[in-house]
Hints:
heterodimer, A: mainly alpha, two-stranded antiparallel ribbon, 4 helices, B: alpha/beta, 7-stranded mixed β-sheet, globular
Amino acid sequence: MMKEENIVICRCEDFTLKELRELLEQGFNTVEEIKRVARLGMGPCQGKTCGPLIKREIAKYTKQKIEDLDREASRPPYGGIMFGQVVGDDIEK
Amino acid sequence: MIKTDLLVVGAGPAGMAASISAAKNGINVILLEENERVGGQLIKQTHRFFGSQKEHAGIRGIHIAEDLKKEIESYKNIELMLSATLMGIYEDGIFTVLKDDKMIKIKPEKTIMATGAFEKYLLFENNDLPGIYGAGAVQTLMNINGVLPAKKVLMIGSGNIGLIVSYQLMQAGVEIAGVIEASNKIGGYMVHAAKLKRLGVPIYTSHTIEKAIGNERVEGALLHKLDSNWNKIEGSEFEIDCDCICLAVGLSPLTDILFQSGCAVKYLPELGGYVPYRDEHLETSIKGLYVAGDVSGIEEATGAMVEGEIAGLHVAGTLKQDDKIFERIKEMKEELRSLRAGPVGHKIREGLSKLYDEIYVEEDEFPEVYDIEFFRKTGTPSEENLKAVMPDEERLNKGPVAVTECFQRIPCDPCVYSCPYNAIKPFEDMNELPEVIFEKCIGCGICVGKCPGLAIFVLNKNYSETTSTVTLPYEFLPKPAKESIVDVLDRSGAKICEGKIIRILDGKAQDKTSIVTVEVPKEFYNQARNIKVVL
C-alpha cells in the first residue's frame, strides 16, 4: 500500500494526498471549498500543478466525471503582485 | 491606456507566427512575453522538426525560433514587450499587464491568446524529493543554461517529450536508466523511440513508478508492472538506480487566465484538459478573442505555428476586409488538416470534433500501412517491418542503396525533397511513408542526414569480398575519426562487432547530424545501425 502521507499533491502549500483525502471525508467536496480551507491553488503556481490532481480526487470520491465538476474561478490579478505595482507612485490622469 | 489593433499573448511558436502573419498584412501588433526572450519551448528543441517542408520541417526548433525572432524584429508594426506578464482580462476589453514593476492597460481591437501549456505532475511516494524534475526544467537547465541536471536519469513518460529529452540528455553525456510508460504502447513517434533504443536505452511499457527512493535526494526508484486494466501486478516491483526522476507525463493547456474572459470552455482529455470552444479560425465564444497553439489543445509545435498563422490572418482579414488574406487562410487550413490527418492525429481530431461543427473524419484518412504493434511495444521494428523495406538481393548486390526504416505514419516529408536524384517517390500528402525507387537511388546518403527521424540508412552489401558498409546518421560527441575502429551496435543498442570508419561527412550542410559510413563484416549489414566511439 502506498503511503499517502508521503505523496505530495500541492508543492506550493506542502499538502499531501492523505490530507486531501481527509478533507474529502470531512465533506469538503469542491475545488472552491478545498481552496478556502487548505489554500490549495493559492501558491506561486496558482493551482496549475495541483488543480487537475485535486479534481481527479474529487471526481473519484464523489463518483462524478471531471467534466461535471465546478471549475475553479480565475480572477485578476493572475499572479502575485505588490500593491505599489497596482497603484503606482501617482494617479493616472 | 495603450490602444492597438491586435494583442498577442505569449511569444512561443503560435504567438510568434500569429504576430508575423498579422503584421505582414498591415496590422499593428503588441506581442507580450512573460520571459526575457521570445521563442517559448522552441529554444530548447535541438532536433529537426517534422511536418511539411514548406512549413519549417527539417529545421531544428532552435533555428526556427531564431528565424521567427528575426522576422518579428523586422516588422516596425510589431511592438515586442518582454518580461511582461498578463495580469487580468476585463469585461470592457481591457487587459492589464505587469511590465517594469508597473501595471499598464492595453485595449486591443482583437486578441490572440497563445499562452501555451503547463506540465502535468504525478502522484507517487516521496514525489517531492530533490532530484525530481519536470522535463521542461531539465531542458531549461541543459539546453538554455548549460547545466547538467543529473548523472543518471529515469524518464517517466514515453510521449515525444520524454523520448526527445532522453535523447538530448544522452547527447549531453547523461545516462538514461530507462524510459517508463504506463500504457502498453510507446506514446511518441516511433522514430524517436528507435533512436533511443539504438543507444541501448531500455523502454519499459506497462510500467509505472511507485516510489522515489532516497533520504536527502533521489537515489533510485521503485517501479512495478501494470496489467491491461492499469492495475499493479503484485510481486512485480523492482528497484532502479538513478539520481534524477524526470516527469514527462503530459501537458495541460494553460487556459486559467482565459477563464477570466468568460469564454466557453470544455474539459476534453483528448486535448489535455480544459480547452476553449472556438471556430475553425480559432475565434472563441467571445468575439475578437482568439486562441492558438497548446492553449487551444495540446499538439505538436508545427501545428501551433499553423494555428497562429490562421488566427493572425483571420484578425487581419476581418480588420482589412481583404479577400487575398482569406485565400491564404484556406491554404493554411489545408495544411492543418493534413497535419492531423494521420493515425497520430486521431486523438486530436476526436477532441476537436467535440468543439466545433466542422467534424474531422473519424476514420483515419491514412491508416497505418504496417503492423507496428511490436514496434510500439518495444521501440524496435519487427522482422516483418524490416523485410518490407529491404531491397531485393539483386539490388543489394548492385551497389549502395538507401533503406527507409520509417514504418509509422507521421506528418513529415523532408526526405522527398532531400534526394537530388528524385529517388524517393513524391508524396501527395505528408502522411505518406517514403518509398525509395531503388533503380534511381545511387546510395549517396544525402537523405540520411535530412530525415528528422534519423530513420534512413545506406547499405553497401558488397563493399569488399567479406565486408559491407552501412551509412548512418550520428549526433554525438566525440565524432569518430576516419579510419578509426568503433563499436558497432544493433537496433537495440547491443554491440555486435567492431567496424572501421570509412567516411564521415560533417560539413555545414550536415548541420551537426554527421553522416558516417562504417565497414562491418558482411553478415552484419542488416543489423548494424549505430556506432559507439571507443576512446
